[in-house]
User: What shape does this take?
Amino acid sequence: MTDMTLENRTNTEKLLFNPEDYTLKEILSPKHSALLVVDVQNDFCDPKGKFAGWGRDISQMQEIVPHIQHLIDTAHKAQVPVIFTRGFEDVKFRSGPDLRRAVRWEEKDGDGSVNSESGTFGSEFYKVKPEEGDIVVEKHKWSAFAGKDRDGKTLQEILEELGVKTLVVTGVVAETCVETTVRDAYDKNYFVVIPRNSVGSNDQEQLETRMKYWEKGFIGDAVTEEVIRQNWLAKVQSPQLSQVSEQ
Assistant: This one.
C-alpha cells in the first residue's frame, strides 16, 4: 500500500468516525450503528413458553417488547441495520462446558426440558418479525458472535461488511445472552449502547445488577430509548432534533 493510499484511507476513516471526539452523538451516528435484537423468542416471553411453564416471572420481558419494536421501527426509518438473533439450546448442538450444563440440569432433547429447542414453538420469535433487508443470526451458544446468518457469515463478518462500529443491544435474557454478547462486542472493539427499557430478564435482581454495572460505563453506555431515537432520526425528521443530550 502506497503512502498516498494509506493517507486517503485514514482521511476517509476520519470522515466516518472522529476518534478524538467520542461523544454519544458521534458514537450513535446512524452511519455506523446497528440494532441487535437478542433472542426475543416464545420460550422466554410467551405465556405458553418454557419460562412461564417453569413458573418464572416473564412479565418484565413482555413489557420491553413494544420498546424493542419501537427501536426496530426507528432503525428502519434511519436506515440503521437491524440484526435479530435466534438461539437454539438443543443438547445435540452443544459441546464441552455446554454439555456439562445439560448434565447438571438434566436436559435432554425432545422431552420438554430444553428451552428454545429447534423446530418448536418456543424457538420462534415473540411479537417481533424481521422485515425484508433485516438480518437473522442463528446461534447455539449465548453470545450473538457465536452465530451465523443463512449465508454462513458470523456476526462480526456481517458488521465489518456493513461498516458498523456501534451496537445498540436489546433483548433477553440480561444475565446470559445479552450480557455475554455485550462483553464480546466490547472485547471486539465495538462501542456498545444499551437502551435501559429494552433489555429483559425473569429475575429482577439480576437485571438491576447488570443495569447498574452498564450504567457505570465500564463497557458501554446505558441510555434512554429517546436518546437513541433522537440521534438516529436527527437528519431524517428535523434539524432541531440534532440538539440532543449527550453523556
Summary: The radius of gyration is 19 Å. The domain at 28-86+123-242 is CATH 3.40.50.850 (Rossmann fold).
